[in-house]
Amino acid sequence: MNFSWIIRHSLALPPFYVCKIFTVLRDDSSGASATQAEKEEADARSIYVGNVDYACTPEEVQQHFQSCGTVNRVTILTDKFGQPKGFAYVEFLELEAVQNAILLNESELHGRQLKVAAKRTNVPGMKQFRGRRPNPFFGSRRPFMPGPPMYSPYGYGRIPRARRPMRYRPY
């Protein structure tokens, strides 16, 4: 799958699904989708570059990391409007180039201090699920079962100020 195929077929997708990816130096036109092992191997040869200037081009990022090793691909991600998100991924041909690139952490490019780290492999299903929080004003999903009467130690209808529930009062 090459870059022109992505451009031709991205018009059929809604704009929030389209993410521009700039690729430099080498184009993998293998046609088959990469397996999980191949993705992990490519992630091991890649680095994350944060705080990249919005006006920075992939060629400039490639030149900045050329001293570390042979750059295979530079990917600058953009939002749905085509504006760069401010970070990039650089993939090298050699595994040793990643350690050399990490030494360029806090180096400057376009007057901005870069944050360089090894790329993490995305593990599907690792998103933290927080679940639903109970709403004290809505009640529970259990049916109301009356129990023995509870008498307030403060008197009928009185609740201490610190124990009053916070209610939304728009006026």
**Which residues form runs of ≥5 with pLDDT under 50?**
10-31
Principal-axis shape: elongated
Radius of gyration: 27 Å
Q: Strands of the largest sheet, in order across it?
A: 2-3-1-6
What does this structure look like?
The protein has 171 residues and is α+β, with helices and mostly antiparallel strands. The protein is 18% helix and 18% strand. The protein has four helices and six strands. The protein has helices at residues 3-10, 36-44, 58-64, 96-102, and strands spanning 46-50, 71-78, 84-92, 108-109, 112-113, 115-118. The strands form two sheets. It has a four-stranded antiparallel β-sheet. It has a two-stranded antiparallel sheet with strand order 4-5. It is elongated. It starts with a helix and ends in a 53-residue tail after the last strand. Residues 10-31 have low confidence and may be disordered.
Features of the shown structure:
single chain, 171 residues, alpha+beta, four-stranded antiparallel beta sheet, 4 helices, 6 strands, elongated
SSE arrangement:
Elements: H1 3-10, H2 36-44, E1 46-50, H3 58-64, E2 71-78, E3 84-92, H4 96-102, E4 108-109, E5 112-113, E6 115-118
Antiparallel strand pairs: 1-3, 1-6, 2-3, 4-5
Short description:
Helices cover 18% and strands 18% of the residues.
